[in-house]
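Hi Y.,

Following your request, here is the sequence exactly as I used it, all 327 residues.
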Amino acid sequence: MRLLVLGGTQFLGRHVVSAALARGHDVATFTRGVSGPPPEGARALHGDRDDPGALPRALGEWAPELVVDTSAQSRAAARHAAAVLGGVRGYAFVSSLNAYRGWPPGPVGPEDGEHTWGTADDGYGPDKAYAERVIGASVGRAFLTARAGLVVGPYDYVHRLGWWLERIHRGGRVVVPAEGLAQPIALVDARDLAGWLVGMAEAGAGGAVNATGPAGMTTLGGLLDLCREITGSDAEWVPVPEADLLAAGVEEWVHLPLWLRQGVARTAWDVDTARARALGLPSRPLAATVADTWAWQQEDHRPRYSPNGLPRPGLPPDLEAALLSSR
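Below is the corresponding structure, written out as tokens. Let me know if you'd prefer a different format.
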């Protein structure tokens, strides 16, 4: 079938394209054209989603039957997609757990029991919730919204897991959050999510799904140990108490990626994924995800970035040195 990927040249969208091509679809991507070409075999359509005429001009006579939307970054983009793509047979939209008003810290229960942001609210989460409602109203029962959690894997230029891999590979004494090592983490490999999204669009599946890994699948400490093993590092953990990290100006999630303060971490990773599991969202072994990410980032040296105006992830060297000097 003709499958349109909104996005498709970086990270999750790139994996969606590869999955759709592998399943025999006629695939097109719609992007601004600034992040490089899509995987070979897909046609590249270009335009700005905030321009109401861009998508119909780019599509021309090529009418998609299925859509996987990985890139709605504005309310205008959502409205314009809804206006053009409401008649497709299946539409899988990548939303976020941030669409829930109470997350973080959570916990997040079954999808039907939660409440998302109102239309008057501003920000990343409210914009995702708005897009869910607007596009969902246009597409109807064949609209699936995947409220994604932490997505990792090859082509992840946001560089959260990637920063830990690089820092641990350098070895030596590494600052880690003392209490945070035991915090639970759940994540999903972009390739697992991508293939599943294509399958959901094919099936015309609808409704909301918390699309992340099973709760309790690992801990931050377990993930860091795995990074040390896979990179062959001699890194030595230097646990720093949470109070000292915060007093030194260390920012959760940013300076030490994936770390959250105890009061937030206690419930933020507690997300009900029963519907995702029932619908077949896979969860490959974490070791495979980490190993493949490490192999990719040693070959791909394009710039890393941080979304939504946040600083680039990672502990600044001077701050790390100051924390280590007293221990």
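The chain has a mean pLDDT of 95.

Thanks again,
Q.
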